[in-house]
């Protein structure tokens, strides 16, 4: 077939490629009109007497109103956690603690459909992702750490690991239940008690988790889940009776928190922003690499701290990679997150959509070449077309700053040394991807890239047994795997 005919056929196929809607039912999701604070095993009215709305970013409709914890509420939660730590949890045999964590894992599994639907309604991510990634991984984290609870002596042989006490945990909106699992499961397995605050825009699955925890008969006060905005997070950070702060969020807030705990005895781990390099060599399996690029940046609307937001393509394959990438972007289905066909769902909030638009405008003003999907966006809700910039300079703000949206900055390179230097030229160091047929190249790159997680010939793969965390301004400390245990222990 002549080349132009082939391209036309392809285009025709994309233009006519339409799936019948396949919406997931909302009927499994029981969302209360109002949620109180989960303190000491009970849902309690906030002392602040204040509530805020959480909305569905795909429709802008209100889903529920949620309590806003003030300093007095935080104090109440910390007291409950301290009491549970001193009198129950730290005294309980590790084997018994493990049983509770297993029970929570099983209950998440049993109610996986409800969790997936609520995650998608509250946060805007496609139901396929909540169903296949977020919720199963959250359950797996509880299963994995439940197994460790009575084996800490094997994890740290010839040492005496000791729990820290009360952990204050603050999480973002991009993987709401999964981040709660990353934080709560290792803390409980190591014998600590918890006060956790989910993000303001996505509190509902954490509150569902609170319901499960209540049903699991976990002793009151071992896990307290309190909702609120940044001020609530700050009150947790500044509380004098907290032994450990675990924070996942922006580098900006991470710096504020680090300053706040300086000079105190609080142990701290920070998982912050990223600007990952996804590197495609000429000997890579190009179709697989293109799928990896799509997965790396358009997956979850680019709301991924380790998103492959900077793409480096070896010059000799630049043309073919760009053609295949643009063809693939044309097939991405953007829209209703509850539809099982949807690839790219809603941006999490109006504010985040404005941030993304701000960066797209910066890219245009910098004179970069822009390409965006020709899809039609829904009229209501917060949506953004999958977008890419080419002709990008190293100094461009699009290549340097975290956008946290479906926007890709593309650069080219000729040699290994050149791409290593370019990839490392960032304040961040969370993750990276390398696509090549040569194992030796993988090992050369992975030893020289300054990033905490590096994937080879795949992207965005997570597992509870693997540690995760950053270098440089992406934070410090590791979550997941055996490393994740030591973040919640004093190991002498
Ligand atoms: P954020 O603004 O830093 O918020 C994160 C959490 O901190 C939220 O619960 C937030 O509450 C709370 N918070 C805000 N100000 C605070 C303060 N002064 N003291 C204590 N807590 C405070 O981040 P975001 O915009 O929600 O999340 C996106 C960021 O998270 C991105 O930069 C992304 O890269 C990063 N992230 C990193 C990882 C990782 O593992 N490294 C994983 C996921 C996300 P409100 O929600 O109410 O503002
Ligand atoms: Mg919401």
Write a brief caption for the model.
This protein is of the alpha/beta class and 492 residues long. The protein is 42% helix and 17% strand.
Word description of this protein:
By secondary structure, this protein is an alpha/beta fold. It has 2 domains: about 35-270 and about 475-490, 3-Layer(aba) Sandwich (Aldehyde Dehydrogenase, Chain A, domain 1), CATH 3.40.605; about 275-465, Aldehyde Dehydrogenase, Chain A, domain 2 (3-Layer(aba) Sandwich). Helix content is about 40%, strand content about 15%. It has 17 helices and 20 strands. The protein has helices spanning about 5-15, 70-90, 95-110, 110-125, 125-150, 150-155, 175-190, 205-215, 230-240, 250-260, 285-295, 320-330, 350-365, 395-400, 415-425, 440-450, 480-485; strands spanning about 35, 35-40, 40-45, 50-55, 60-65, 160-165, 165-170, 195, 225, 245-250, 265-270, 275-280, 310-315, 370, 385-390, 405-415, 430-435, 455, 475, 490. The protein has a 7-stranded mixed beta sheet with strand order 14-15-16-13-12-17-18, with helices on both faces. Strands 9-8-7-10-11-19 form a 6-stranded mixed beta sheet, sandwiched between helices. Helix 5 (about 125-150) packs parallel to helix 7 (about 175-190) and helix 11 (about 285-295) packs across helix 12 (about 320-330). It is globular. The mean pLDDT is about 95. Bound molecules: NADP nicotinamide-adenine-dinucleotide phosphate and magnesium ion.
């Amino acid at each position: 077939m002549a080349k132009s005919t082939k391209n036309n056929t392809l285009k025709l196929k994309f233009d006519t490629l339409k799936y019948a809607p396949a919406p997931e039912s909302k009927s499994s999701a029981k969302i209360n009109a109002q949620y109180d604070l989960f303190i000491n095993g009970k849902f309690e009215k906030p002392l602040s007497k204040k509530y805020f709305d959480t909305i569905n970013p795909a429709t802008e409709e209100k889903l529920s109103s949620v309590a806003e914890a003030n300093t007095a509420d935080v104090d109440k939660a910390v007291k409950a956690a301290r009491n549970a730590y001193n009198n129950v949890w730290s005294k309980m045999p590790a084997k018994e603690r493990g049983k509770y964590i297993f029970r929570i894992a099983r209950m998440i599994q049993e109610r996986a459909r409800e969790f997936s639907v609520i995650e998608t309604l509250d946060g805007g991510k496609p139901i396929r992702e909540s169903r296949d990634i977020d919720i199963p991984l959250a359950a797996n984290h509880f299963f994995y750490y439940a197994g460790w609870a009575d084996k800490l002596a094997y994890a740290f042989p010839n040492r005496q690991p000791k729990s820290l006490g009360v952990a204050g945990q603050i999480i973002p909106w991009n993987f709401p239940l999964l981040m709660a699992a990353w934080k709560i499961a290792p803390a409980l397995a190591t014998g600590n008690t918890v006060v956790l605050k989910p993000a303001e825009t996505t509190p509902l699955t954490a509150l569902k988790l609170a319901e499960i925890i209540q049903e699991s008969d976990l002793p009151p006060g071992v896990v307290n889940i309190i909702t609120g905005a940044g001020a609530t997070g700050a009150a947790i950070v500044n509380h004098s009776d907290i032994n450990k702060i675990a924070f996942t969020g922006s580098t900006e807030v991470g710096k504020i928190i680090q300053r706040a705990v300086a000079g105190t005895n609080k142990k701290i781990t920070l998982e912050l922003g990223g600007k990952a390099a996804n590197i495609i060599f000429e000997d890579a399996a190009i179709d697989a690499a293109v799928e990896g690029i799509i997965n790396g940046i358009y997956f979850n609307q680019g709301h991924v701290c380790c998103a492959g937001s900077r793409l480096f393509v070896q010059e000799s394959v630049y043309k073919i990679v760009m053609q295949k990438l643009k063809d693939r972007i044309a097939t991405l289905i953007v829209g209703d997150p509850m539809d099982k066909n949807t690839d790219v769902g809603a941006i999490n909030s109006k504010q985040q959509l404005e941030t993304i638009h701000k960066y797209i405008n910066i890219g245009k003003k910098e004179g970069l070449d822009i390409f965006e999907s020709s899809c039609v966006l829904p009229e209501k809700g917060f949506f953004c077309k999958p977008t890419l910039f080419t002709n990008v300079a190293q100094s461009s703000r699009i290549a340097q700053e975290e956008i946290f949206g479906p926007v890709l900055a593309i650069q080219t390179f000729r040699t290994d040394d050149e791409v290593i230097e370019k990839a490392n030229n960032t304040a961040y160091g969370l993750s990276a991807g390398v696509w090549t047929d040569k194992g030796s190249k993988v090992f050369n790159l992975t030893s020289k890239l300054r990033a905490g997680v590096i994937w080879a010939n795949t992207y965005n793969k997570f597992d509870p047994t693997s540690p995760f965390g950053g270098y440089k301004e992406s934070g410090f400390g590791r979550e997941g795997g055996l490393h994740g245990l030591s973040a919640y222990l004093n190991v002498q």
